[in-house]
Structure formats: C-alpha cells, structure tokens
Amino acid sequence: MNQFLNVSSGFFSIIALAVVIVALIAWYFVNRASVKANAQIRLLEALLEEQKQQNTLLRRLTDRLVLEEEAVESTDENKDFIRLIPER
C-alpha cells in the first residue's frame, strides 16, 4: 500500500505540474490578446477624434459655401430687378 501511495502522489505531482504549465500558457495568450485589443481600442479612439475634427472642418466649409452661394444669388436677384425697370 505504501508503494501505491508513493506512485500515486508522484503521478498527481506530474498532473499538477502539467496543469500549472497549461494554465501559464493559456494566461500568456489571453494576456497577449488583451494587450492587442487595448492597442486597437487606442487606435480606434484616435481615428474617431480625427474623424470628428474632419467633420467639423467639412461642416465649416459647407456652411461657408452655402453663405457664398446665397450672397451670389441675392446679388443676381438685385441685378435682375434693376434690369426689369423700363427705360424712358
């Protein structure tokens, strides 16, 4: 019976060591994936900020173009109205 206990305790030590090694390998890959995900999140946040700035600039540009078009249209309307006055 003593021999059985000695063999079984050695067997359980080998299994425990294998479980620890597998757990460390799994932890390494999970940690590595987490670090990559964090880097991707930082990049996406930077892209979002740049996109917000681009949207703001685009909105300013389109607003300016609309105002210029309205100014041109109003001056054209004034010229047309002047042309409609009959000469004597």
Automatic annotation (TrEMBL):
Primary localization class, coarse: membrane
GO CC field: plasma membrane
Localization (cell): Cell membrane
Keywords tagged on the record: Cell membrane, Coiled coil, Membrane, Transmembrane, Transmembrane helix
Entry keyword Transmembrane helix: yes
Presence of the UniProt keyword Membrane in the record: yes
Transmembrane parts of this sequence: 12-30
InterPro entries named in the record: YebO
Membrane topology annotation: Single-pass membrane protein
Residues forming coiled coils: 34-78
Protein name: YebO-like protein
